[in-house]
Model the fold of this input.
Amino acid sequence: MNGFDLLRKTELKVENIHLSNANLSTIAATVADILGLERNEVIVVDYRDGMLVLDILNNCVNAFKIVGQQEALLQGLGALPGVNVSDKTSIASDGMLGWIALDKDQALDALRQGQKMAAEILGTIAKRVIVFSTGAEVASKEIEDTNIPTIINYLTDEGFKVSRGEVLKDDKLFIAARLLETAEAGGFGVIITTGGVGAEDKDHTVEAVKELDPHAATPYICHFEVGTGRHVKDGVKIAVGEYNGTIIISLPGPNDEVKASLEPIVNGLKIEATKQDLANLIAINLRSILRKKMKQSD
Done:
């Protein structure tokens, strides 16, 4: 992770610099080249009383390319026609852009340490999972929730730290809001839901995931004809989406199908599979189970 958000502190100030018929576009282009930015990402916004102010139009910069670059910037600017740089000229900026004026070796060492810490934190978060069940019959305790203990036990054995979420009511907006809240909190690498992926009018989990991630992978597990029985949708789907860096996986409710999904989930997470590939790994197992069930019912 080399990119750092400037957090709207995008002004780069050069103090005690004097211009005489200088070309502002050339100045901006020179600064962009030295800082490893595209030329259209730097513009001069003001010059008065010996202060030159530029604006960085890219809110996320490569920190390793800007640290300790004050001397290179001053040399580059001083070589331009109409630009006078003296030993009093300096860089004065807030936020990450202030790193331009730092000692390069010390700043790079700090960045590397920061990268290491960030990687460790992200690694810890990636192994944190929260599991939600859905369904009125689970919420009312009419049926035992065997899915959450199954998931907790399996993923814990695989080295994940798993938290138990509450039972979500069968409402698309409610489920979407709870998933959004959890993902935005940023403490979990994976959210798993069970139930609510069927073809009846009470099933809304897949649609809730798509509220957060319109490009979520939603492969079919089986197909139905709309209008047969209680089917108002043309089949059962699962969903794998992503929001704010959190993977969201929506599984069916039957416990045997949840169990069959856990090995492909772990394998997919270990290889950092795309959401489409992860969804397909899960779906293949579930289709196999349904085929066996259909054969047994014949």
Observations:
- The mean pLDDT is 85.
- The chain is about 40% helix and 25% strand.
- The chain has two domains: 3-117, 127-297.
- The longest helix spans residues 104-126.
